[in-house]
Design brief:
With about 260 residues, this protein is α/β, with parallel strands linked by helices. About 35% of the residues lie in helices and about 20% in strands. Strand 7, helix 7 and strand 8 form a beta-alpha-beta unit. Bound molecules: adenosine-5'-triphosphate (ATP) and magnesium ion.
Length: about 260
Amino acid sequence: MLLELRNVTIPTEDKKCVIVNNISFGIKEKSIHAIIGPNGSGKSTLAYTIMGLENYKISQGQILFDGKDISDMNITERAKLGITLAWQEPARIDGLSVLKYISLGMKDKLNLVKQVSETLKIVNLEPERYINRKIDESLSGGERKRIELAAAIAMKPRLIILDEPSAGLDFIVIEDFMNIFAKIKKLDMTVLLITHREDVGLVAEYGTLLWRGDHIITDEFPKVMLRYCAKAGLREFCKRTLYKNGAACFDEDYIERIFREESTS
Ligand SMILES: Nc1ncnc2c1ncn2[C@@H]1O[C@H](COP(=O)(O)OP(=O)(O)OP(=O)(O)O)[C@@H](O)[C@H]1O
Ligand SMILES: [Mg+2]
């Protein structure tokens, strides 16, 4: 496991309430792992805690990265180990050229233009059209998101955490997103994808379902998705997404059994 959470509890900043309650699961190296769950289930809190943001401290348990306990490390120390969070505070980067912005976090600055161009291709932006653009309001929401993702990829982190803000992926169509992730997969990075759009999670091999701060299941993504649908009562949505995308091959009986189990539990 590249990242392992052991009995992690995350309280609110004032320590009066628990947001994430005693959860344990692992993320395999070089996998794409999605965390899903309804609004308010604790996904972002978990992402910020793994990243090591100031106001997110665990009150119980351990976070291990590559076998090493990082629970007491701050964000800078964790970043040095190769943990990166993308899609955060996009406003900070206003005014830089795309080339400059993407190259900021690159370790190896040789053949910069070539490297940045390759990274832009991963996120399906044509390098010659974008490399000299300024990052400002003239970029569309989707272009901006792609550029932010490209910048995170360019850092070559070992673990990249993508917390998609609610409106975020509406800018990128699902087929495009799948295509981008197929390319990311070849880069040998580990990706933790946090999403409220459960169908988007289908790019992931593994998943974790959080429910009001509790850990429900960690497994292959389609199984996690099925449990989510059963808990949320989304039978039609489940059949539509899990069948049509061909990502999983559950038969009707199996789906009905999981829905029954959930309704009686
Ligand atoms: N500082 C805080 N103080 C009190 N409650 C908080 C604090 N931060 C988060 N919460 C609560 O913790 C819960 C989990 O929030 P979080 O943002 O992690 O959910 P989420 O799963 O990312 O939701 P969404 O899908 O809406 O992004 C929410 O009920 C939220 O209101
Ligand atoms: Mg969130």
